[in-house]
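Help needed: design a sequence for this.
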């Protein structure tokens, strides 16, 4: 399939091949798009998500940035679905929804999500209607993207484990996991393993939302720049949706597992002589020029999907918000998404307190940390260098979104060295849970912040593990130790075990 300006084919999803303008999108998609506004995070200007443009070959132009250059944030009014709780006509439902008793509304939302989460994990394929409820993203669809069901592209994703690993909350059957809590110095510590998503990282949550939007717009080609996980996720979802995927990677700086996945799923892989930041600049240019749908977190619908990490972990905690959320920070899309989810969950009275967020950067890739150190008075960019290739990013795209989150939740930004990351990774790996290097920044950060007294040892803390151990099977994994080759006899084994 050639790349040309037909990357976006309006109406393809609707089966009307020659539809040429926004005005002629199928009504249910047009209605959804008209209910969504994109607000500039820098100057608050408002835009529709796609604009009709007669000069474009396809008639449809999606918007990723404000005229001022700022990134955009989805705004959407949430509508409580009618199927649960109080019976009654439409009018009384809306009255209920707008009730001044906010906590009653929060209880209704919780009921919606809890009922959906109780669908069985295994079901007959003939009852596929459970698929959306079972997805750890689409379960929260009213808060993410209320897309018409038949356009949703889902594996499904999410439903990742929340492991209790603290010194106090780690049960006997998880004795090996307790060393994580001991290392962090935390009594009530949970790790949410986003590496358990279909393509092995949290990126699948944003990707299912982004690719669904691509599908609704009739895109035939999608693209991203990546340090490896976004590209693997994009390639998997594009393959599922029958779209072409094109990924821009910093040559020599992508872990082998991620590169292998991306290629196996059939992406066109463009390795550039340059770092992630250069790849990011290039892909934006390419997408704008060639009409390919951009699926980096610059795309605001990716951020919406990633909010589901926040909703899901709150639901797993019975809607009792933790005191802290700790996560690794690179391009800053994830912190933007989870921070937004917490704020929205609070506004809907799903929770009664907003967790503080601790964003952890690698010391060699710490532009956000440096800016935080200067009270965010200026944006900083660096030439990034860290062993955690996933977060080797010097000029994060979602800086303004993430800054707003840290300021609003009284959050903090910390940095950890590569040595600290690898030490933490060894603890997580040896506990039997395992993660890729960037994810271990979470535990390294917890260890440091508890030691400094910033996080108290009895506070309830959730840490995010962002990627699977198998993504990078070299960095921080002992290649020699425990893998001696011995003769196939008892004496040889005895001698080896005695060492
Ligand atoms: N952890 C992992 C495993 C990642 O892959 C990334 C980002 C992050 C943390 C940081 O998240 O960018 O939202 O702040 N990976 C991107 C990629 C850049 O291309 O896969 P962020």
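Sure. Designed sequence:
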């Amino acid at each position: 399939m050639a790349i040309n300006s037909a990357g976006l084919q309006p109406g393809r999803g609707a089966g009307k091949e020659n539809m040429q303008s926004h005005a002629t999108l199928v009504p249910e998609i047009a209605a959804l798009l008209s209910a969504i506004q994109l607000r500039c995070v820098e100057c608050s200007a408002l835009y529709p998500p796609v604009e009709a443009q007669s000069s474009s070959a396809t008639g449809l132009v999606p918007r990723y940035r404000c005229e001022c250059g700022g990134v955009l944030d989805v705004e959407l009014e949430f509508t409580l679905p009618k199927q649960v709780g109080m019976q009654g006509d439409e009018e009384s439902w809306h009255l209920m929804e707008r009730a001044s008793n906010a906590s009653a509304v929060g209880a209704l939302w919780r009921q919606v999500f809890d009922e959906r989460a109780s669908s069985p994990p295994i079901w007959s394929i003939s009852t596929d209607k459970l698929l959306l409820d079972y997805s750890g993203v689409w379960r929260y669809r009213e808060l993410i993207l209320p897309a018409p069901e038949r356009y949703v592209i889902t594996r499904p994703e999410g439903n990742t484990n929340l492991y209790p690993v603290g010194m106090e909350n780690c049960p006997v059957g998880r004795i090996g996991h307790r060393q994580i809590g001991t290392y962090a110095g935390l009594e009530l510590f949970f790790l949410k393993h986003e590496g358990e998503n279909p393509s092995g990282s949290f990126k699948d949550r944003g990707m299912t939302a982004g690719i669904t939007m691509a599908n609704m717009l009739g895109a035939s080609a999608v693209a991203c720049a990546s340090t490896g996980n976004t590209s693997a996720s994009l390639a998997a979802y594009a393959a599922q949706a029958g779209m072409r995927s094109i990924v821009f990677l910093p040559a020599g700086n992508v872990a082998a597992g991620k590169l292998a996945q991306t290629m196996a799923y059939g992406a066109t892989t463009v390795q550039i002589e340059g770092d992630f930041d250069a790849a990011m600049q290039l892909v934006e240019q390419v997408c704008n020029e060639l009409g390919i749908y951009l699926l980096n977190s610059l795309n605001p619908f990716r951020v919406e999907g990633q909010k589901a990490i926040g909703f899901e972990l709150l639901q797993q905690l019975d809607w009792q918000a933790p005191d802290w959320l700790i996560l690794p920070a690179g391009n800053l899309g994830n912190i933007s998404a989870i921070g937004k989810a917490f704020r929205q969950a609070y506004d809907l009275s799903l929770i009664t307190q907003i967790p503080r967020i601790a964003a952890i950067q690698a010391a060699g890739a710490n532009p956000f940390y440096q800016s935080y150190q200067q009270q965010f008075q200026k944006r900083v960019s660096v030439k990034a260098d860290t062993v955690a290739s996933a977060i080797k990013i010097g000029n994060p795209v979602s800086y303004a979104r993430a800054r707003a989150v840290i300021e609003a939740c009284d959050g903090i930004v910390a940095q950890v060295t590569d040595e600290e990351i690898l030490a933490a990774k060894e603890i997580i790996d040896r506990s039997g849970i395992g993660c890729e290097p960037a994810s271990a920044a979470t535990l390294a950060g917890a260890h440091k912040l508890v030691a400094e007294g910033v996080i108290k040892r009895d506070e309830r803390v959730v840490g995010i593990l962002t990627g699977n151990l198998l993504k990078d099977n070299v960095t921080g994994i002992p290649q020699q130790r425990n893998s001696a080759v011995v003769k196939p006899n008892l004496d040889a084994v005895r001698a080896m075990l005695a060492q």
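Confidence is low (pLDDT under 50) at residues 1-6, 9-21.
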